[in-house]
Amino acid sequence: MYCNQCEQTAQGIACTKQGVCGKTADVAEIQNLMIYAARGLALIALAAEEKGADTRAAGRCCAAALFSTITNVNFDKESLLRVLHQVVDERNALAKKAGVSCNAPAATFVPAADEETLLKQAEVASLTKLAENPDCNSLAQTVLFGLKGLCAYTDHAAILGHENPALYTAIFKLLAFGFDGETPTLDAWVKAAMDCGHTNLMAMELLDAANTETFGHPEPTAVSLRPKPGKAILITGHDLKDLYMLLVQTEGKGINIYTHGEMLPTHAYPGLKKFPHFAGHFGTAWQNQIKEMPHFPGAILFTTNCIQRPGEIYKQNVFTTGLVGWPGTTHVKNGDFGPVIERALALEGFTEETAAQYPDTQVMVGFGRHTVLGIADTVVQAVKSGAIRHFILVGGCDGAKPGRNYYTELVEKTPKDTVVLTLACGKFRFFDKQLGTIGGIPRLLDVGQCNDAFSAVKIALALADAFGCGVNELPLSLVLSWYEQKAVAVLLTLLSLGIQGIRLGPTLPAFISPAVLDVLVSTFDIKPITTPDEDLKAILGAA
After folding, report:
1. pLDDT computed for residue 543 by the predictor
2. pTM of the prediction?
3. Where is 199: in which H helix or E strand?
4. What is the DSSP string of 494-517?
5. Considering only CA atoms, which of 152, 7, 127 is closest in space to residue 490?
6. Could you give the dihedral angle defined by the CA atoms of residues 373, 378, 380 and 381, in that order, rounded to the nearest 10 degrees?
7. Contact by Cβ (8 Å): 272, 243
8. Contact (CB, 8 A) for 459 and 369
9. Residue pLDDT, tens place only, 119-162
10. Which of 9, 64, 36 has the alpha carbon at shortest distance from 130?
11. Angle subtended by helix axes 25-50 and 77-98, to nearest 10
């Protein structure tokens, strides 16, 4: 086992015996083989496309396979083995249908029938063997982890019926890069990393269209943090269709639905918040679930990442769906939430007494591009008048390692003439802070989930256009926290757009070699976070 794809990796180097996330070595090796098999499928798909074949099924298969390997998605060996064989079966079927072949090892890989031999096969798929040159290997890992993130967004969009053949082709090319018999140079790997960023922008744009065309544009909405008395289901993850189906299936059953983690922004979608039993939000970020979920008196549904080992006190209430899996929990098909509902009805739910123990407060969500650009003239005038001095985007993933209080302190110390935009689960370090307003504009604007970085990009581009300048000349600074692979994808997108001066923390990725870091610093002025006071001085001093 060698896994260094997330921020919490052991000793800041790699997990080699068992993942800090709880992933076992055999699960890690099977996931590596899934990626290796997906590279073979990608090679066949590219050959099939040259003959005009339809490769959408191959694209969906690759996206689902890579999404399954993201940190805190699937820990269930049996379900991962099924995915591995699905990828190989899709490769073989497409090759036969299109009449193509490929002699590359990844395209001819056949999983062993017994587990011992299968795990030995995984050696060829090790992260340490992506490229011989250490700096090329560093960039190869960066591309792979960015690919995993963008495949998550691609899968979400496909679930809502939105697909783009050009996006699938780009994924195939990135998967095949370096596995087609060629040995890419360092410069070629740098270009591949930028291509990955551009491809992720395509994926986020597609998902944005899928979400907004299905459920409407998010609009400013107050979300209660105090539960209501009654039966309850907690839904966590990112998938909006699962949430919609759950809301439909629980109508009239006396069950209140609560969001957790990155589901919080879903309260802003008109097509979701119309349900009267969509009651509010419970808990904070993913890493606190072990402390918070024992106090939730209902059923709990995980739709995507980020699942942790469920505590025994609430494990019997946990259900997974889609690509999520944890051994010993109940898995239900997407949209078939009968068992979840039955469990919720069997549990006590919130009483008047237990509900009253939570603060009677609300938080605001729904400040995506549609909302912010709707008041663009007001925002521009506030900047020109000096009422708004600077915008600071404080976004990204939350996590458990020390040092993340930096983001809370940074936001608390932002001056009253600054506006904080935030997205993804990093917001839970400060989402309930009362920062006030500037001319009616809230100083804390929740842009949405991690994939809503597309909204943030569109806002920045529109403001740059309004001021007649480049994005890097705007009174805008980005302070990002990273944890897993979707954050890598978003970072690559920002870099591919030429955005400079990004501050990144709480630690730099273990897979970035010193030479690659030098390139990032010299080319993009990327820098590690320091202290809130020092960083605010640097940010606002240059404003």
Report:
1. 46
2. 0.96
3. helix 186-215
4. HHHTT----EEESS--TT--HHHH
5. 152
6. 170
7. yes
8. yes
9. 999 999 999 999 999 999 999 999 999 999 999 999 999 999 99
10. 36
11. 20
Neighbours of 80 (CB within 10 A): 23
Cβ neighbours of residue 186 under 8 Å, at least 6 residues apart?
133, 135, 136, 139
- Alpha-helix runs per DSSP H in 216-337: 240-249, 270-273, 289-292
Element at 328 (helix H, strand E) = none
Query: What confidence score (pLDDT) does residue 541 get?
Result: 87
The C-alpha atoms of residue 483 and residue 521 are separated, in whole angstroms, by 20
Q: Running DSSP on this structure, what letter comes out for residue 157? A: H
Q: How far apart are CA 365 and CA 360, in angstroms?
A: 17
Q: By CB neighbour count within 10 A (0-12 exposed, 13-18 middle, 19+ buried), where does 88 fall?
A: buried
Residues of the chain with pLDDT under 70: 542-543
> Looking at residue 308, what DSSP letter applies?
-
Angle between helices 376-385 and 453-467 (to 10 degrees): 60
Note the pLDDT of residue 183.
96
Per-residue pLDDT at 371: 96
Beta strands 330-332 and 278-281: pairing type?
Answer: unpaired
In whole angstroms, give the CA distance from residue 129 to residue 308.
Answer: 29
CB 149 within 8 Å of CB 67: no
CA 382 to chain centre: 32
φ, ψ at 255 (rounded to 5°): -115, 130
* 402 CB-side CA count, 13 A: 0
SS3 235: strand
Full DSSP string of 391-454:
EEEEEE---SSTTTHHHHHHHHHS-TTEEEEEESGGGGGTTT----EETTEESEEEEESGGGHH
Read off the pLDDT of residues 296-320 as tens digits, 9 standing for 90 and up.
999 999 999 889 999 999 999 999 9
- pLDDT at residue 400, rounded to an integer: 84
Burial (CB < 10 A; 0-12, 13-18, 19+), residue 543, is middle
**pLDDT for res 542:** 53
Which amino acid is present at 299?
A
Whole-Å CA distances, 19 to 6, 395, 489: 10, 25, 22
Lookup: tokens for 439: 């001319």
Q: What angle do CA 423, 447, 288 make, to 5 degrees?
A: 35
For the chain, how many helices (H) and strands (E)? 20, 16
Q: Cis omega (within 30 of 0) on the bond before 506? A: yes
> What residues have CB less than 8 Å from 542, skipping those under 6 apart?
none
Q: Which of 365, 246, 362, 224 is nearest to 302 (CA)?
A: 246
Written as six digits, the tokens of 239 are 């998938």
**Residue keyed to tokens 């690759």:** 62
Instruction: Please work out, in degrees rounded to the nearest 5, the angle formed at the alpha carbon of residue 43 by the alpha carbons of 519 and 98.
Output: 155
289: tokens are 């679930």
Q: In the 8-state DSSP scheme, what is residue 16?
A: S
